[in-house]
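[Solved] Which block belongs to which protein?

Original post:
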Amino acid sequence: MHKFILCIVLLMVFHVSLTENYLGLSYRKMRYQMKQTRLTTSLIALCLFFGFNSSAQSISPRELVNLRKMEDSLIVSADSMFSAFIPDMRIAYSERFARQLVHALKIPNSYRYPFDTLRKMINIVYADDNSFRIFNWEIIPGNIPNRYYAALQLPQEKLKLIGLNDYTQQIGNGVEDSVLSGGKWYGALIYRVKSTTVKGQKIYNLFGRNTSGPVSDKKVIDPMYFTKTGVTFGAPIFGIASRNNPQKRVNRFVLEYKKGVSVSMNWSEERQMIVFDKLVSIANDPNRRYTYVPSGVYDGLIWDNEIWNYQHDLIDIKILEDGEAPTE
């Protein structure tokens, strides 16, 4: 808006200066000056058009009121789906919440509404280039594995929403190798989206956590890219051989570890790479992933030549003995 006002002021000053110079001009020069004035007037009209067009895309007072009301309703439903006294009812509440969310997002310009209160209860994560945002939550229903829900919203005035279906149980042991489309997705609680580009194709790396396993948890980096029919998950952009098929690269990076253990994995702005805990088996058995715990050392993935390359032993953390003082 400030740029729009400045554009108008400068053009009007230019218009006035041209008008003041009409006196004393020859007929030919005056006709040229009048053409310049008409050009200036046309530019002012263009400024007005783009200025009003930009303003029309912001949230109107009425839309804002409706979105706030819908957010209040969503918060009530979210409380029920997370803490219903009967755990088996939580999935039903979650489905009701999802319907309410779609209804709220159908309000024009809803992408501009941040849902600041709701995001304290569910994850609302934006891509690092703001090309979409993800509404994402986890349900703990009781005697069945955790369920994950997610929907991608694109930044358009009219709603463009892509729903995702948790396909965790169907994938089984193929977490690293599977490629999913048609709304299928390896369910996770997403906490970051980092974009990369491969042969001109934008690929979004979704950082997530899945705790639906009975004896182990997982941290995942799931590559996602847009297609003509929706989105596809999984791509061979990691310099890591598949355990199931060593001749091929994994399509998804997975850290599996002992259930309930805290494991870190995130993007480091300082190092310009992904940094995560190096894991070791407390049973000295590398095949039993459910025995893995952090070793006190960090590994990483660095993006180079359109691939995530594995980097070992980035940061060695000294574990002090009882009574030993740090030297730095």
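(Second protein starts here: sequence line, then its structure tokens.)
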Amino acid sequence: MAKLIFASAAATIGIFAIAGLVFAQKNQFPWDDYRVEGDLTTIHVQGNVYMIHGLGGNVAVQIGDTGVLVVNTGLEQNSSKLIAAIRKLSDKPLQYIINTCAHPDQTGGNEALRKIGVTITGANVTGDIADAGQGAQIIAHENVLDRLSAPTGQKAAAPAGAWPTDTYVSGQKEVFFNEEPVEVRWQPAAHTDGDSLVIFRRSDVVATGDIFSTVSYPFIDVERGGGIQGEIDALNNIIDIAIPKHEEEGGTYIIPGHGRICDEFDVVEYRDMVTIVRDRVRNAIKKGMTLEQIKTAGFTKDYDARWSAKEGPGTADNFVAAIYRSLKASPSR
């Protein structure tokens, strides 16, 4: 009997030890380079890619022997901080800036960063670039250029030095840089009409821009071509790209437009929430409810503590209103 009790106890201890190891592996601090300087945080995500947080929107930075590539540039007033943070990661020339949308929290530093950069022809440069050598290339979807620029005689949303210099109109744009394929994929009518996902294939990192956030409901900018179905489609595309390492954790890392680094499971949770709220609003529209009635119906109540921002476009009311306007504009979607 004593032997049996001892064996049972040992087995129980073994089970708890394995459970503890699994818990430790899932919750250990994974980042090998994590720097906090003032209001900026710089994290080595994996491979060639870093994330700089605290500039407005998150900035992804790819470094290597060839040079520096950045995804988004934060708010204009934080440009000098971003440049200083990049210089601490690499002294190589900045050659590429990629914008995931046209909003100022992601493009505000374009002009300042372009000025410190350089376009080196032959470094996977395609198309006619009239000002080759005069600053870094800015890559974005054509709709981003349309949003930042303006017809002659009208005031543009951004100075000419901040406009994309290399655009694409459908599918994706590809760059091979720092011995890594980088894909820039258009996501139609999602957060806006000019959204791109940026995929670092060797590093296994995806920068999503404002399609995905960990700190608020999605900002679906209907006035600038965004839509609820495009948002869901884009989130599904991120999930299709990401591959978890084990137990739905690790593997492909996701850099959101705002908030912390994530993996596939986080995006799945977000996609499910967006889809459920969309379905609730759509059913309410079919019943003839007005926008004000829908806002007061509490269709986001079970998610508000986690996702509703205190102010701005990511609040529950603004999220519901954007879904309503999007569905009214395209009832079938």
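Accepted answer:
You had them paired correctly. Confirming on the second one: The chain has one domain: 28-271.
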